[in-house]
Amino acid sequence: MQILLLEDDIDLGQAVAEHLEDAGHGVHWVKRLAHAAEWLQTHVPDLLLLDLGLPDGDGLAALARWRQTGMRLPALVLTARVQVADRIAGLQAGADDYLVKPFDLDELLARIEAVMRRSAPSAPAADGLRLDAARRCALRGDETIELTAMEWAVLDRMTRHPGRVFSRADLEDGLIDAGLSDSQSNSLEVIISRLRKKLGTQTIRTLRGLGYRYAPEDEAPE
């Protein structure tokens, strides 16, 4: 899973980023709202971790603006604001959860998992295909379809945003951020080809010059 972390406290940001990376997640850490907005123009993370008191603005106001533009990215707020009114304001602005500092890093992981479970698309597949996040495999009826770490990373990322077109660079950056090899033998084309063989040719569609889209109900890939 790819996470955008927006936190200006150096010590906390580094601790959170390292803990999430140790858990197998890719993390892009920025310290200013402007840097986050710029990065979001060309990248599609799976989750936003957002501090509120930032050097160049209020994170809550930024989240509200992003929600108004149609951003559906799950967001978990990290803040020192402890009042109930602050938590209510965060949820009303579009936060999916609210964690008060200081917090335990393992609790943060548990909160992230809970947010992603709630935001995951229901039955994101065709021909009875289902994804098992706990075992990182695909299921079709009684059949278990084993996936490599790289295949799972690509498929999980795409199914969290059904219908969205992912550029080659975006998917490759996701693999690298997750600490997975980008060697020639495991090129993105090879991973997509293997997924189609395992899951069916209609699972992932190629849009020439644009990238790839998870579209199991569309026509066969070009």
Alpha plus pi helix count = 8
**General form:** globular
Low-confidence stretches: none
Helix content: 40-55%
Order of helices and strands: EHEHEEEHEHEHEEEHEHHEE
Strand order of the largest sheet: 2-1-3-6-7
**Radius of gyration, Cα only, in angstroms?**
18 Å
Relative strand content: 15-25%
Most strands sheet:
5 strands, parallel
Explained architecture:
With 222 residues, this protein is an alpha/beta fold. Strand 6, helix 4 and strand 7 form a beta-alpha-beta unit. Helices cover 40% and strands 23% of the residues. The mean pLDDT is 82. Helix 6 crosses helix 8. It is built from eight helices and 13 strands. The strands form four sheets. A five-stranded parallel beta sheet has the order 2-1-3-6-7, with helices on both faces. The protein starts with a strand and ends in an 8-residue tail after the last strand.
Features:
alpha/beta; 13 strands; 5-stranded parallel beta sheet; 222 residues; 3-stranded antiparallel beta sheet
Give the helix/strand layout.
Layout: E1 2-6, H1 10-22, E2 26-30, H2 33-40, E3 47-51, E4 53-54, E5 57-58, H3 59-68, E6 75-79, H4 84-93, E7 97-100, H5 105-119, E8 129-132, E9 137-140, E10 143-146, H6 149-159, E11 165-166, H7 168-177, H8 188-199, E12 204-207, E13 211-214
Helix pairs in contact: 3-4, 6-8
